[in-house]
Amino acid sequence: MKKKYEVLFYIDKLSTKKDQNDPSKMVFSTKELASHLNIQRSNLSAILNELVRENKLEKIAGRPVLYKIHNKLDEDDSIFNQLIGFNGSLAKSIQDIKSTLLYPGKKPVILLSGESGTGKSLLAKKIYEFSKEKGLINENGQLVKLNCKYFMNDETMIKNLFIDYGKAALEKAKNGMIYFDNVHLIPEKYKSIIYDLIEMSSLKENNFMVVLSSDCFNENDLKSNALDNISIKIDLPSLDKRGLVERMELVQGCFKKEARKIDKSIVIEPETLECLLLYHCKNNIKQLVNDISSACSHAFLKNLDNNSNVYVYLDDFPIYVKKGFIFYKEKSTEINRLISHDFLYYYSKDSIEKIKIKESTSAVYEHLEKQDTSLVDKSLLLKNKYNQLISSYRQYIDKEKINELNISKYIPQEIIDIVKEFLDSSSQKLKRVFPQEVFIVLSLHLTKIINNKQIDSVKNLV
């Protein structure tokens, strides 16, 4: 099975190197491939025909018979495609891992490097699953994980686990994979055990793969013989480097997972999503997941006595999450593309639904009074609402070409006079001059609030 994927990967690799604008150069004969891959033509022919039956290669009749890639390898790699960022921040890393795994030769040793919480353990698991699917390790081969942080301060435990258990781990991992997490925490004198395992992995009778991970990789921490045996080093980006689109996917996935756990829909306000996209996560994805899980459990406890949806408010999160508002202004354009501010987000175990918020503009202030938030938090929330308000009014002003000369077409004269009087008084007290935009925005906003109040009064009378 491994040979089959070696052949497919090699053809795919050659295809990307050839002139893709000329389809005639994207085809290969059995003779050409046999010389490159050092496989007997009869064996190669059987492999190529099997790949044709699996719809991975296309066979072109003639003399000689030619073959070409039917679909790119990336299109059906469902295992790595389960990772958020597989076609974004992780795309190159995944391609490098696949290249290393599928290239003919001895089993590779992979080092995953990145800050705490960036997803190294999850990627190691996907490497194991991918290797198993492609026949690179035995179908019954196990994934043996050793987390080095649990024995970093206990010399006796290190000896027991690495010297005695090391042999058992080796036996258990035969035809499978050993994953050493937090390898940088192992004391220097015990690192030689890992080096020995790396060398032993290439022996035919052992036949297992080794993956290492480190939060702070330093080449000086590894001996030269260990570095020589490492096939590839993969650097995982921190959460801040992954962009807001991928972070939104992570947040959405977390809420769906929590909804699945409690078997109820979870309702989130747009302001909460904003903060989750913007606050600083010192421990990256792991912290984001833990903060969301903790907030959902807090909200669930408050709704324990009823069967309704669980509303998770910003107040259910730690104070440092709320400070995400501080960064709204610099990221407002991208945030506004990702989040609809006049919708509530409903997360169920299978879907995400947006439902328009049916409330007047003044309800924002009433909502803030109901939440158990500090004055600082309310100030941040109001500041954020103000920025959103200005942005939406600017669009309307530009569209309608509203200015001080034609504003009376849109605003009652009474409101115009009130706003002018208010701004004149404020200018004198604050010793500053307000631009025309402030006058127009305030006039529009006040008109909208009054109109909404009048509509609500009519509804109550009816």
From TrEMBL:
Q: Name one Pfam family in it.
A: Sigma54_activat
Family annotation (Gene3D superfamilies): P-loop containing nucleotide triphosphate hydrolases
- PROSITE patterns, per the entry: SIGMA54_INTERACT_1, SIGMA54_INTERACT_4
Annotated Sigma-54 factor interaction domain ranges read 83-297
Q: What SUPFAM superfamilies does UniProt report for this protein, alphabetically?
A: P-loop containing nucleoside triphosphate hydrolases (SSF52540), Winged helix' DNA-binding domain (SSF46785)
Protein keywords: ATP-binding, DNA-binding, Nucleotide-binding
**Source taxon at top rank:** Bacteria
Cross-referenced InterPro entries: AAA+_ATPase (IPR003593), P-loop_NTPase (IPR027417), Sigma_54_int (IPR002078), Sigma_54_int_dom_ATP-bd_1 (IPR025662), WH_DNA-bd_sf (IPR036390)
PANTHER family associated with the record: PSP OPERON TRANSCRIPTIONAL ACTIVATOR, TRANSCRIPTIONAL REGULATORY PROTEIN
* Full protein name: Sigma 54-interacting transcriptional regulator
Name the species this protein comes from.
Catenibacterium faecis
